[in-house]
Amino acid sequence: MRILDRYIAKTLLFYTLSVMLVWVSVYTFFNFINEIDLIGKQNYNTLSAIIYVMINLPVIIYLHSSVIILLGCLLGMGHLAATSQLIIIQNCGMSIMQITQKVVNAALMFIFVVILLGEFIVPSTVEYAESFKAKALKENISTVNQQGFWFKDDNTIINVKKNFDEHVFSGVTLIKLNKVNQLDSISYSDYALFDNNNLNLKKTKYYQFSQNDKFTKVQFKDLQKYSTKISFERTLIEALEKKSNELSSWKLYKYISLLADNNLASSIFEVELYKRIVKPVTLVAMLLLSMFFIFGSLRDATLGKKIFLGVIIALFFELSSRIATAVSLRFDYDPLFSVSMPTIVVLIIAFFLLKKKSA
């Protein structure tokens, strides 16, 4: 059995790598075409464009991993069916469900590698690629990230007009509330530094509010510097400038926790995190549904038609899952339920169909 396991895994690996090579080549070609308009500006030449596109290869593999693995497994199993090897395997006493289990085990091995790629390599390559491109175009990286943000940290509301590099801020306003949510103080500075623990304001205009039954007293101070402790880290400020799919799962979790602690909306980040958690199960569901079309007599339909139909149904399921998550964001449904329910339904249906065929 171990020899058969290795043979099936080797076959699926060969076809998965072949699909990946073709898929990545196509996307790399179109990504290079998108860079042609920038070639010739400053120091950004053809070689720079090629390097930039090549650095982004792990991103292409990660974003399209589900389709690549699905097509690779289907083509591998299709090859075994077309050469009658599946019939021989079945005649040796192995059931359809046992063969399907081996395919799923191989696919999960591929998925594990892809998850490691997405968590540890992709975030670094994306950042390095953008930095490389900015330097070649002689763009000031700090000016690229000049985006302001609002944030609530416990009883302090923070507004930053310009965020240069998650360390240097411009136009910073701190609004502090007391224990009964009344205005306590307002601080403003044209320039501030964040050291991952404290927000240090320079040349600060400080307004202190004290209230009694009838009046509100305002005291003004012109401070050379003012410091306040911040509970979140620099990496979370970094997350404000990125899309949810550009963050690692750990950063997503920390960001969601921070938003939840401050009673801020985090649905879009929760959906992305749950999608990654459910992704292996989703791929298994698509594989099971597609494997239903691999087995059976080739006289009912050609193998190519069966593979094509299986891929179409699996991709339609992927599209349906994305629509479900979009609907959950629009109508504020539970993100975990919206992400997992289509997968669970298809998984159950595919399992019983394969069970029935193997009976």
Description:
- This protein is α+β, with helices and mostly antiparallel strands.
- The chain folds into 3 domains: 1-142, no CATH class; 146-232, no CATH class; 241-359, no CATH class.
- It has helices at residues 2-35, 46-55, 57-63, 65-82, 85-91, 96-136, 141-144, 234-240, 249-261, 267-291, 303-331, 335-358; strands at 149-153, 156-163, 168-177, 183-194, 198-211, 216-229.
- It is elongated.
- It starts with a helix and ends with a helix.
- Residues 141-145 have low confidence and may be disordered.
Concise overview:
The protein has 359 residues and is an alpha+beta fold. It has three domains: 1-142, no CATH class; 146-232, no CATH class; 241-359, no CATH class.
Total helical segments: 12
Residue share in β-strands: 15-25%
Number of strands: 6
SS content category: alpha+beta
What is the approximate shape?
A: elongated
Helices and strands in order, then pairings?
Blueprint: H1 2-35, H2 46-55, H3 57-63, H4 65-82, H5 85-91, H6 96-136, H7 141-144, E1 149-153, E2 156-163, E3 168-177, E4 183-194, E5 198-211, E6 216-229, H8 234-240, H9 249-261, H10 267-291, H11 303-331, H12 335-358
Antiparallel strand pairs: 1-2, 2-3, 3-4, 4-5, 5-6
Throw out a few tags for this protein.
359 residues, alpha+beta, 61% helix, 3 domains, six-stranded antiparallel β-sheet, 12 helices
